[in-house]
Write a structure and sequence with these properties.
Number of strands: 33
Structural class: mainly beta
Strand order of the largest sheet: 3-4-5-6
Largest sheet: 4 strands, antiparallel
Radius of gyration: 19 Å
CATH superfamily of the largest domain: YVTN repeat-like/Quinoprotein amine dehydrogenase
CATH class of the largest domain: Mainly Beta
Strand content: over 45%
Number of helices: 0
């Protein structure tokens, strides 16, 4: 698991306890992926790519030759991997990241996630409903018609034909013909959905803002809410049909050993540091407010970063107990992706904001 300011966490007991293995960097780590027990990579702001060959005990910095924001990293094995991110960037390696080469994605849209099922077949999704597909290992890409302009956050490839996509406004898309046609699926919410994971063609989960945790056991025909928190949940993974983990704001980690139907519970890592926040409106054109609740009078610190991980705004002040709204005027800044980090005492909330015309 990876996050702000180079944070990397590891567990050796199925998530009961977590060990910090952070790399000394101020970059935001947006994505982490292990090809096997030993070989893992993390990627994030400033084009940073980190690599470990010993299960995370040591991390080395790889040269991406890129200074923009990397949002997603994926490896099939210890050699073949891909990154995606800002301005449609796609990087590819065939030697475990010793060298990375640029690939033309055919789009300038922010690509939020990239996935492959073998050395040839892969897809990526991103802003403005973009879905692209490759059949030659990412050397060339073809744009697919998603039927939406919503931001798409996550894709899961079940096989060559079946794939799932989730994103803004509760958007859930499904294809059963390799992406040539996408069907919109009603999952029962219009909140922002962040991640999707299937263990087979029938059984899957979705996480999203406001604690949404959705489950299907019939191939997505119906979705059942399993939420136990209102905290934004950004990622989910299952090792089988019973055992899974979800992660979110403030270091929140949820764990289930029953497929989420019963026994879904928070893991005691940063459990005491949960802080719920909400940017309004999002996307925004000029000014945005970040809303949150203080349980007592507190000193707050708000930091906002651009897509390169550079801080563009910082505010510190003492505030009173109750509902609070911090306003940020971004008139002088360009359109694009921004990230905020709100700290209240020992509690931290993070979020993504999109500035548009």
């Amino acid at each position: 698991m990876a996050g702000l300011e180079g944070l990397i966490l590891k567990t050796e007991d199925a998530g009961k306890t977590w060990i910090e293995q952070s790399f000394f960097t101020t970059d935001w780590l947006q994505s982490i992926y292990f090809a096997d027990e030993n070989n893992g990579w993390a990627a994030g702001s400033g084009g940073v790519i980190l690599h470990t060959i010993n299960s995370g005990y040591e991390w080395i910095l790889q040269q991406s030759n890129y200074e923009g924001w990397l949002e997603s990293i994926f490896f099939l094995n210890e050699s073949n991997g891909w990154c995606s991110g800002q301005d449609g960037i796609i990087l590819k390696t065939t030697n475990g990241g010793e060298s990375w080469t640029f690939r033309n994605s055919g789009t300038d849209k922010f690509l939020n996630e990239i996935r492959f099922i073998n050395n040839d077949f892969g897809m990526a999704v991103g802003d403005s409903g973009i879905i692209i597909k490759t059949s030659n290992g990412g050397d060339t890409w073809t744009a697919l018609s998603s039927g939406t302009a919503d931001t798409l956050e996550s894709i899961f490839l079940v096989d060559h034909n079946h794939a799932w996509v989730v994103g803004q406004n509760g958007r859930v898309l499904h294809t059963d013909n390799g992406g040539y046609e996408w069907n919109s699926v009603d999952c029962g919410t219009n909140h922002w959905l962040m991640d999707i994971y299937f263990i087979d063609n029938e059984t899957g989960w979705i996480t999203g803002n406001h604690g949404h945790l959705l489950h299907t056991d019939n191939g997505g025909q119906t979705w059942t809410e399993q939420a136990i928190t209102a905290i934004n949940l950004y990622g989910i993974y299952f090792s089988n049909d019973k055992t899974g983990w979800a992660v979110g704001d403030g270091g929140t980690i949820l764990h289930t050993e029953s497929g989420g139907m019963v026994g879904l519970k928070p893991v005691n890592f940063y459990a005491q540091n949960k802080l719920d926040s909400k940017p309004i409106p999002n996307p925004f054109s000029s000014q945005i407010s970040i809303e949150y609740e203080l349980k007592r009078n507190e000193k707050i610190t708000l930091r906002i970063f651009n897509h390169l991980g550079q801080m563009v705004y910082c505010k510190e002040e003492n505030q009173y107990q109750g509902t609070q709204r911090l306003k940020w005027n971004a008139d002088a800044l360009s359109d694009g992706i921004y990230y905020y980090r709100l700290q209240v005492g020992n509690s931290v909330a993070n979020g993504k904001m999109v500035k548009v015309n």
